[in-house]
Specification:
The chain is α+β, with helices and mostly antiparallel strands and 426 residues long. Helix content is 32%, strand content 26%. The longest helix is centred in the middle third of the chain and has 21 residues. Bound molecules: adenosine monophosphate and glycine (GLY). The site of glycine has 7 residues, from loops.
Length: 426
């Protein structure tokens, strides 16, 4: 069968690569894809943008696609799954009503409160003056978030009151993020260690994926601006078996039960961004209604089961009858970003060394790349995610960085310390 993957990042390259390994898949089409998906055997790109839902529907029909898998949040929040289903097409991801868990921070916070699911205390504001009064009353550190989708740029962790006030002036006063920041959520600052927890859901049940952790800050030591993620590894030792059980019991199960009870059963990948405090108590920082990028890349390196079987089981409401098998070896991925990322970046630089003769335990996933006249050029902020498996996390890190050193493009920047928090624990 043919499968369509919507999106163009490293996550989508990894999804296409893994889905193509299913014996039931003849071809994976990626819309719009990148140079990595263009070159992957059995995978090809179709030039349809991820927000062009009519174009995607047309593509799925003319190509006789049996299943569409949606990578990014933007088409999910726009209702791509509802449109596909209404035309009788099989499409994996949450419907628009359930995608609000990511599409609106206010919706997510109110949902969490209604169901007594642990999260930071908060208040929501559309007007600058009461918002300023609230942060002054609460004091710093405090967190200011744009309500809508802002591609990772909508969160300011303000260590001082002046920073919090500046963020409010930018978002509510100067409308720096447009409609996404017409409303803001102001949250209590949570202390602890972050963890990403991703589950596959069939509307009622959750099948946890291998644990993972990303590094959101641009610079070594977790300094510098927030990004979409500069690297990731799996498993994440912060999620001990005991914490894992607490996350399922205190966060995931009540979330799925609450969504089902509200008529918005969650089918798809649900990603809970969590803060784990010193006592091991998990609290929700945010929900994403899709796989994480770059977490997906090391997670899928470790997945031994057929991903198509898992997705089919979730779509058909029978996750209780499926099991999943993981490579016990850890995997680690390093993002190679263009100069200027996460701000404005230069495009069109030639990438070399990405196709060196790496060992089978190394995989280079593409994100911001394109093919032009037979050359691979940069075309975005995060260019590649270089992943490796290893007998332990230190070995995975060594292999990944050895592969990184063979790759070049002008302005290439990357963190040298991906995995350091987990290595400190091993
Ligand atoms: P988000 O986009 O909501 O995941 O936020 C981006 C990053 O900001 C998170 O990964 C955390 O590092 C940080 N963050 C968000 N909310 C809080 C909070 N309430 N307390 C502390 N850090 C936070
Ligand atoms: N790596 C974080 C995210 O995908 O949102």
């Amino acid at each position: 069968m043919k499968i369509l993957v919507i999106g163009s990042g490293g996550r989508e390259h990894a999804l296409a690569w893994k889905l193509k390994q299913s014996p039931r898949v003849s071809e994976v089409i990626v819309a719009p894809g990148n140079a990595g998906t263009a070159l992957e055997p059995g995978v090809r790109n179709a030039a349809v943008a991820m927000h062009d839902i009519d174009g995607l529907l047309h593509l799925a029909k003319v190509e006789n696609v049996a299943l569409t898998v949606v990578g990014p949040e933007v088409p999910l929040v726009a209702g791509v799954v509802d449109r596909f289903r209404s035309e009788g097409l099989r499409c994996f991801g949450p419907r628009k009503i359930a995608a609000q868990l990511e599409g609106s921070k206010t919706f997510a916070k109110e949902f969490l409160a209604r169901h007594n699911i642990p999260t930071a205390r908060y208040a929501a504001f559309s007007d600058l003056i009461p918002a300023l009064a609230y942060v002054r009353a609460q004091g710093a550190p405090i967190v200011v978030k744009a309500d809508g989708l802002a591609a990772g740029k909508g969160v300011v962790v303000a260590l001082t009151l002046a920073d919090a006030e500046q963020a409010l002036h930018d978002m509510l006063g100067a409308h720096a993020l447009g409609a996404a920041s017409a409303r803001v959520v102001i949250e209590e600052f949570l202390d602890g260690e972050e963890a990403s927890y991703i589950v596959l859901c069939d509307g009622r049940r959750a099948l946890p994926l291998a644990t993972s952790q990303d590094h959101k800050r641009r610079d070594d030591g977790d300094f510098g601006p927030n990004t979409g993620g500069m690297g990731a590894y799996s498993p994440a030792p912060v999620v001990t078996p005991e914490i894992d059980a607490r996350i399922l019991r205190e966060i995931v199960e009540p979330t799925l039960a609450g969504m089902a009870a509200e008529g918005a059963p969650f089918i798809g990948f649900l990603y809970a961004g969590l803060m784990i405090d010193r006592g091991g108590a998990p609290r929700v920082i945010e929900f994403n209604v899709r796989l994480g990028d770059p977490e997906t890349q090391p997670i899928l390196m470790r997945l031994r089961s057929d991903l198509l079987d898992l997705i089919d089981a979730a779509l058909d409401g029978r996750l209780d009858r499926i099991s999943v098998s993981w490579d016990p070896r850890p995997a680690l991925g390093v993002v190679l970003a263009a100069q200027g990322y996460p701000g404005k970046v230069h495009s069109g630089d030639i990438v070399s060394g990405h196709d060196a003769a790496f060992t089978p335990d190394v995989k280079v996933f593409h994100a911001g790349t394109k093919v032009e006249n037979g050359k691979i050029l940069t075309s975005g902020g995060r260019v590649l995610t270089v992943c490796a498996l290893g007998t332990d996390l230190a070995a995975a890190q060594t292999h990944a960085y050895a592969a990184v050193r063979r790759i070049r493009f002008d302005g290439m920047q990357y963190r040298r310390d991906i995995g350091y928090r987990a290595l400190g624990k091993c």
